[in-house]
Amino acid sequence: MKISKETRIKLDKIRKFVVAFFLGKRCACCGEIIETHKDICGYCNDKIIENINGCEKCGQPKSTCVCKRQRFEFDGIISPYLYDGAIKDGIKRMKKDIGGDTAEYFADVMSEWINLKGIKSEIDLIVTVPLTKEREREKGYNQSGLLAKRMSKNLDIPYNKKALIKVYSNKEQHYCSAIDRVGNVLGVYEADEEICNDKNILLVDDVTTGGSTLNECAKMLKIAGAKKVYCAVAALTVKNKPTKNADE
To answer: Is residue 114 in some structural domain?
Structure first.
C-alpha cells in the first residue's frame, strides 16, 4: 500500500522526535546538542548567509552575477546559502557523513526553495552529481545522493541514481585552479539516454565553487536528450567581481 505524502511527513516528524528524545538533537552545522524543535543552534544561525537575491541563472548574488561573461549549459540554479561561516561547517559535516540530520536539513531547505521558485511542476526527474563506483564504495555514500533521496520524497519526484554516472576518476575540483577546473571534468561523466531523453531534470549537488562540474553534467544530460536542466545546491561560493585596470 502506497503511503501518502502527508502520512510520510507525519511519520518523519515522529521519527525525528523519537531520535532526538533518546539521542539528543544536534545542530546541522556545528553538531552541538540543541532543542528538539530547532535545526540549528542560535550561534550558527547568526552566522548563516542566505542567498536571497541570487541570480536565477548563475546563482550568484546579483552584485556578483557572471552571466554576461560565462556560458552555462544548465537553465537555472537555486542555492539557499552562501558557502561561508556556519554553512561551510555544515557542508563539511555532511561530507563526513556525521549524522543524517545534516543532509536532511539541507535537503528540506532546498526543497522549500524549489517550491518557492515555482519550478517543481516542470521537473520530471532528479539526478545527482555522481562519484565513481570505486569512490562511493570506499566512502560508503554520496552526500549528493543523500540530498537527492530526501528531496525526491519531499517533492514527490522520482530520483534515478543511474541517469548520470562518473566513468573516470579526476582530481577534486577544490584542488584545481579556476582555469584548470573546466578541463578537469571534461569527459568524466556519462548520461543514460533512455532515462534522460525528453525530461526536465533537477541536478543536485552539495556545493558549487565555479560551476564547472554542474556545467559538464548538464551538458551530458542534454546530449542524452534532456530538455531542460535545473541545478540545486545547498550552497555556493561567491565569485569576486573582476576589477578594472586602473589605466583604463
So the answer is: yes
- Residue 246 lies inside a defined structural domain of this protein: no
Q: Tell me if 192 is assigned to some domain.
A: yes
Instruction: Note whether residue 42 is domain-resident.
Output: no
Q: Name which residue leads in pLDDT, 212 or 114.
A: 114
Name beta bridge partners: 231.
Answer: 77, 203
What is the average pLDDT value for the chain, to the nearest integer? 84
Question: Which residues neighbour 208 within 8 Å (Cβ) at sequence distance 6 or greater?
Answer: 59, 77, 79, 214, 231, 233, 236, 237
Q: Which residue is listed with cell 534532456?
A: 226
Between 55 and 168, whose confidence is greater? 55
Residue 89: which pLDDT band, with cuts at 50, 70 and 90? Answer: very high
User: What domain range includes position 111?
Assistant: 48-236
Which residues lie below 8 Å from residue 77, measured CB to CB, with a gap of 6+?
Answer: 54, 56, 57, 58, 59, 208, 214, 230, 231, 232, 233, 236
CA-closest candidate to residue 198, choices 167, 247, 151, 163: 163
CA 108 vs CA 28, 75, 173, 218: distances in Å: 12, 22, 26, 23
Q: Does the pTM of the predicted model rise above 0.85? A: no
**Residue 241 in grid coordinates:** 567581481
CATH number of the domain bearing residue 166: 3.40.50.2020
Task: Quickly state the pLDDT bin for 7 (edges 50, 70, 90).
Answer: low
73/212 Cα distance (integer angstroms): 10
**Residue with cell string 540549528:** 40
What b/e string do you get for 110-136 counting C-beta neighbours within 10 Å, with b at 16 or more? bbebbeeeebeebbebbbbbbbeeeee
Q: How many domains does the chain have?
A: 1
Confidence of residue 15 (pLDDT cuts 50, 70, 90): low
